[in-house]
From TrEMBL:
Catalyzes the attachment of alanine to tRNA(Ala) in a two-step reaction: alanine is first activated by ATP to form Ala-AMP and then transferred to the acceptor end of tRNA(Ala). Also edits incorrectly charged Ser-tRNA(Ala) and Gly-tRNA(Ala) via its editing domain. This is Alanine--tRNA ligase. Belongs to the class-II aminoacyl-tRNA synthetase family. GO terms for molecular function: alanine-tRNA ligase activity; aminoacyl-tRNA deacylase activity; ATP binding; catalytic activity, acting on a protein; transferase activity; tRNA binding; zinc ion binding. It catalyses: tRNA(Ala) + L-alanine + ATP = L-alanyl-tRNA(Ala) + AMP + diphosphate.
Amino acid sequence: KNKGINEIRKVFLDFFESKDHLVRPSFSLIPQDDNSLLLINSGMAPLKPFFSGTRTPPQKRMATSQKCIRTGDIENVGKTSRHATFFEMMGNFSFGDYFKKEAIRWSWEFSKDHLQMQEDKIWASVYFEDDEAYDIWKNDIGLPEERIVRLGKEDNFWEIGVGPCGPCSELYYDRGIQFGCDDPKCQPGCDCDRFVEYWNLVFTQFNKNEEGEYTPLPNPNIDTGMGLERVACILQDVNSIFEIDGMKMILDEVCRITGVSYGADSEQDVSLRIITDHIRSVTFMITDGILPSNEGRGYVLRRLLRRASRHGKLLGIEKTFLYELMEIVVNKFHYGYPELEEKKDMIKKVILLEEQKFGETIHQGTEILNSMIEGLKNENKKELSGLQAFRLYDTYGFPLDLTKEILEEKGLTINEDHFKEQMNLQKERARAARSQNDVAGWKEDPLAALEEIPETSFIGYETLECESKIL
Ligand code: ATP
Ligand code: MG
Ligand code: MG
Ligand code: MG
């Protein structure tokens, strides 16, 4: 019998608990005390202070299954079989404790004996200079050399600017030539859907300084990440992560609501998968306390909601529907995430309100955009002006990315710099308007007035004392 996502998650956490790891539930999608990141995008991200040494970990070994959002993958979603904007990353971590040997051995043992993956379908990649990892795969594990590939920096070296960094070793599963591309040299690292990267082991063993020099860390770390949906896709032997348990129910519901059948038309399938993915992302984001807005995380949320809404329109849905779909997400995922059930009514309200807001203008906005596109064609131009894009944003609520995406579908672009200028001008206009209101003695935002009162220091007693003495 194939394992469902709840079982896979449990088997993973139990396995590493049996190897003395402290198991913790997923952290929020909102980073804590970390301004470098908008949303948590890996299992390691919320544990950064333990890796950098600014905080002491409760235990030197930990394991989690972490909720992640990767907006950088938004363009892949619906197009590949393996990318989502929201996914769960299972990970085991060592803070200066065990290193490569154990990390590799356990990844192999877990894949083979606990996930019962077909052994001869598993491949490994190592960083091309990392002979140590290569030798472990070859000699300790006994993986045939034909299934160990050496890859370059883009795939197999992890670093962000300066600081701790190191080589990676990834585990791939060969899903078969039916998922492959035409390249006769297709192998792990190829961008097609044949060799699915399901687990990444990061060996944080260096520190990179400002000069770009790498020095070995005295206590190297292990940080691994395994995509829950990808593992489920492999084990359940379905075509894509959108067809695994949990996801398939959402997909089916999208089909039911739209009356479109899955697999009938490839373009419509992309829209179906995008809606399936985005509704899951927004449900989890709102649960963690994010609300739609024009900035930061709220903007990411708005962008996902509006994008899903537009793909609904492409499939012919005129009414609001995302707020209903959310129920399936809650029903399917509350086992792992009970907070979904608790916040259900709130999530529903937030989604419906946003859908209604966008619903009022999307029709008009799309018509305006279409006529703008017509105009470009007539003038033989390829680029929409920033002012036009800004008008769509300001009047019709089209996030820039949405306009961009629609244009790209037609081989057109946008003048983004000019768009940003328009945004800044608008901000200035808003600021000027606020100070105008000051003059009239009326504030738009009553709390903003509080912020403007200079900080006061309490000097009352002293002053009074002095005064009374004088008196
Ligand atoms: P890919 O090369 O396929 O885009 P990645 O190298 O960017 O993946 P990592 O940063 O190594 O991914 O993340 C660790 C694991 O998380 C991956 O091996 C994969 O199983 C999973 N993963 C990464 N991105 C996604 C995504 N967008 N959707 C689902 N799972 C993902
Ligand atoms: Mg990626
Ligand atoms: Mg990769
Ligand atoms: Mg990777």
